[in-house]
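TA notes, week 10

Several of you asked for a full example with nothing omitted. So below is the full record: structure tokens for the whole chain, then the designed sequence directly under it. When grading your own attempts, check the secondary structure regions first.
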């Protein structure tokens, strides 16, 4: 086992974009933060010291943290935050995973600036199941606000309104020349003609699913969420917040300068956000004066492209990398995703937006859930989360605009160790249909089916892909549709399940699964580390 020790100093730094300077929270003064390079099988030890004025916690998005939720990071779910002046050491093994993942702050909206890539190389002696690229690069998509994000969120909360939209999208922290004052904040990747490059694309944006394309260059998708896929070529790709996508790109065009670009996917009649972030694919020896061309991105509301793209994602499913899809299901859950309104005395019209699963808006506890589970501290959460919506209705029929009050609570679902679980995530028209990227901590799951309209339990399962479905940690539930996921609950602990749109998470679109300990050796949650932050 190799050790990958690292120090992460959470500190404030002045950064300027779009001619607006502001103090932002960073790790080691970097924006985006440093990349963690590791190899499958490594033990990673990261000492985080918090020098910022905010409480902090860091999540290693997509790492399974087997029996070791203590290192997972979501504040008040697996740990209490690291207070100003304190530190905590995240200590974890990377087992059975290789590929691209990422890390980010998991408290308030601090992941707006606190994020970075995790690159896990294949185990020594093994290689990629695709041709070895000449070189690789990280492409991290993000969002930039000209003013303080935490302030915006606070103001919005008071009035019951969402904070204003970001001012730019970014690639590796840079918006590119289509934004004002951003000529010098443009990421460029130099390539040599005839060579092949591996791009590790990460969507670290807070609230947008994004289309991504490179002018004149086809991309071959080879991995999603650190799981190899059956390779396929595409002109553009769709990536939701939390997701990663590895592509191979061959520099096979006339030497020149080509824009890479990303723009939100918004499948609503009038997309409100169509700003485009650009970076440059620059052939060696070509002067910077040559004006690059823009790629053809799908229209912001091109649902058809999105659905076709998603349908092409399949697990590689070879003897070396099998797709171990649970064929039989022990536990079936049906969660409706709704947006509603709850009372609010300071809000403009007396109500604020609230998001819910099965009509429950999640309330953050004061004591971390994993601690209360492990030490059996009573009164922190209930395990009575409804297995299905309280009153079934036509989920995706005519819009329901009634003022639907949701109930609030810290309610979880208890799952028996090693049982096989199926969750149907059903979007609803409560207020508005919308696409939701759902993320489960502690696991990868298989996306066995997806469709538009209401899930039909007597018809739809017949069409499930139980052979080579995509395996991932974050999946988009289509607007006015459903997604079915399956996994084996072999990782004991308390695992967060939430929409990765920060707006929706903050409105309560989240819950957690309590996976019980098994009876055998190596089947229970490990003891907590000594320096686990106290609540
Ligand atoms: Cu990437 Cu719970 O988050």
């Amino acid at each position: 086992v190799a050790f990958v020790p690292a120090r992460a100093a959470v500190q404030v730094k002045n950064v300027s974009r779009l001619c607006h300077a502001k103090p932002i929270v960073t790790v080691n003064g970097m924006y985006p933060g440093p990349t963690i390079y590791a190899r499958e099988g490594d033990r990673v030890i990261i000492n985080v010291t918090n020098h910022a004025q905010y409480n902090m916690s860091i999540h290693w998005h997509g790492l399974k943290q087997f029996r070791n939720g203590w290192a997972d990071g979501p504040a008040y779910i697996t740990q209490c935050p690291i207070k100003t002046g304190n530190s905590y050491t995240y200590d974890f093994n990377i087992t059975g995973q290789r590929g691209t993942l990422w890390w980010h702050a998991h408290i308030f909206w601090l992941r707006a600036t606190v994020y970075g890539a995790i690159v896990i190389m294949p185990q020594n002696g093994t290689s990629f199941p695709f041709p070895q690229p000449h070189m690789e690069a990280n492409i991290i998509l993000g969002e930039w606000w000209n003013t303080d994000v935490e302030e915006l969120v606070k103001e919005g909360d008071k009035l019951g309104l969402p904070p204003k939209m970001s001012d730019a999208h970014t690639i590796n922290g840079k918006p590119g020349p289509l934004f004002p004052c951003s000529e010098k904040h443009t990421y460029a990747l130099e390539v040599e003609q005839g060579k092949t490059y591996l791009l590790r694309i990460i969507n670290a944006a807070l609230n947008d699913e994004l289309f991504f394309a490179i002018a004149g260059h086809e991309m071959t998708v080879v991995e999603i969420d650190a799981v190899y896929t059956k390779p396929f070529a595409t002109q553009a790709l769709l990536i939701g917040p939390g997701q990663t996508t590895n592509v191979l790109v061959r520099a096979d065009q006339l030497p020149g300068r080509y824009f890479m670009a990303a723009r939100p996917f918004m499948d609503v009649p009038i997309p409100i956000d169509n700003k485009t972030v650009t970076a440059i694919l620059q052939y060696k020896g070509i002067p910077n004066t040559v004006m690059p061309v823009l790629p053809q991105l799908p229209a912001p509301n091109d649902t058809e492209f999105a659905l076709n793209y998603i349908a092409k994602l399949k697990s590689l499913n070879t003897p070396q990398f099998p797709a171990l899809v649970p064929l039989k299901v022990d536990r079936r859950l049906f969660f409706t995703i709704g947006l509603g309104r709850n009372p609010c005395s300071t809000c403009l019209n007396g109500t604020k937006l609230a998001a819910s699963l099965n009509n429950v808006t999640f309330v953050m506890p004061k004591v971390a859930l994993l601690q209360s589970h492990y030490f059996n501290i009573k009164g922190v959460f209930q395990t009575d989360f409804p297995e299905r919506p309280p009153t079934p209705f036509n989920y995706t029929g005519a819009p329901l605009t009634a003022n639907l009050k949701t109930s609030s609570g810290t309610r979880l679902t208890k799952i028996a160790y090693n049982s096989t679980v199926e969750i149907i995530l059903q979007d609803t028209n409560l207020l508005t249909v919308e696409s939701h990227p759902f993320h489960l901590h502690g696991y990868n799951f298989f996306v066995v089916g997806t469709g538009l309209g209401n899930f039909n339990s007597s018809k739809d399962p017949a069409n499930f892909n139980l052979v080579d479905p995509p395996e991932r940690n974050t999946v988009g539930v289509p607007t006015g549709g459903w997604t079915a996921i399956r996994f084996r609950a072999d990782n004991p602990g308390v695992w967060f399940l939430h929409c990765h749109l920060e707006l929706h998470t903050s409105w309560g679109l989240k819950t957690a699964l309590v996976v019980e300990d098994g009876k055998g050796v190596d089947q229970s949650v490990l003891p907590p580390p000594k320096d686990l932050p106290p609540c």
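The pocket of CU-O-CU linkage is lined by residues 59, 61, 74, 104, 106, 242, 439, 441, 496, 498, 500 (CB under 6 Å). Use that as a sanity check on your answer.
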